[in-house]
User: Fold this.
Amino acid sequence: MKTHAVALRVNERRYELEVRPNWSLLDVLRYNLKLTGTKRGCDMGDCGACTVIMNGRPVNSCLVLAVEANDKDIFTIESVAKNGELSPLQKAFVDHHAIQCGFCTPGMIMMGKCLLDESPDPTADEVRRAIGGNVCRCTGYVKIVDAIMSVGKKS
Assistant:
C-alpha cells in the first residue's frame, strides 16, 4: 500500500513520518509515536476517549486521518503536565475524585483544557456542554464538572 509523508507537530515536537492513507491520527499517536495516554475507545467518534487538541480545537483523533493532520499543531494528554508536575486541571481531577477507572480521563481533561482556554470561568452548563461528547461510565459526571469549574474559579 502506498504511503504518504506527513509532518506533525505533536506536543511542540516535530515528527516526519510515512503513513498509510487509512491510518488515523490516533493510530499514529499510539503506535508510531508511543503516546499511549490518548485512549482508543469506540473508533467511531462517540466516546471522546481519544480527544486531542489540534490547532486549538478538540478533535476525536480516531476520526482524523493522519494525512489530514499534516502541518497541524497537536497536543495530547502527555503535554498537560509540566516538568513532572500535574497541571491545575489534573490536580483538580484528583482533588475532586473525578477519576475512577481513568479510561475517560485523558479525553475529559483535554476537553476541559480547551474550554478553560476559551472561557476561563465557565458555568456548569458550559462545562456539561463541553464534555457532552465524552462518555464516562463510572463517575456520573458531577465530580468532573466540579473539577473543571474549580480550576476556572481560580483563573
About this structure: Residues 88-154 form a domain with the DNA polymerase; domain 1 fold (CATH 1.10.150.120). DSSP finds five helices and five strands in the chain.
